[in-house]
Amino acid sequence: MSIVPSVDNRISTGNLLLAGSMLVAVAVAWGNLSGRAADMASDITAVTAQSAANEARIRALETTAARQDERMVLILDSLRKIESRLERGPNP
Predict the structure, then answer these.
(1) Cα dist. 54→29, 58, 60, 61, 63 in Å?
(2) First-to-last CA distance in the chain?
(3) Distance between CA atoms of 71 and 75, rounded to whole angstroms?
(4) How far apart are CA 43 and CA 37, in angstroms?
(5) Would you write out the chain's pLDDT as a tens digit for each of its 92 residues?
(6) pTM value?
(7) How far, in Å, CA of 9 to CA of 32, rounded?
(8) Where are the transmembrane segments (predicted)?
(9) Could you give the CA distance from residue 24 to residue 19 in angstroms, rounded to a whole number?
(10) How far from 79 is each of 67, 73, 85, CA to CA, in Å?
């Protein structure tokens, strides 16, 4: 005797409740993911703006540092000239 498994192909209330709850779960998950995607897009926009602001500040600091370096070179050159005059003595 062999027992052949059979599948009950009737739709019951439990099946309808399960299908409904699955649809609700999928809808909630979809809404959650859509909200997260929108949040991530706004975060990316904020990070991009902050990056541009940081780059502008860095460029300003680099420009200031270059000017200071140039001033220091001029001061050093002036000090060398003064030092050479002092080494030569009172007569030029």
Answers:
(1) 37, 6, 10, 10, 14
(2) 128
(3) 6
(4) 10
(5) 667 877 777 888 988 999 999 999 999 999 999 989 989 999 999 999 999 999 999 999 999 999 999 999 999 999 999 999 998 877 65
(6) 0.53
(7) 34
(8) 12-33
(9) 9
(10) 18, 10, 10
Query: Which residue reads 């706004």 in tokens?
Result: 42
DSSP codes of every residue in the chain: --PPP-------HHHHHHHHHHHHHHHHHHHHHHHHHHHHHHHHHHHHHHHHHHHHHHHHHHHHHHHHHHHHHHHHHHHHHHHHHHHH-S--
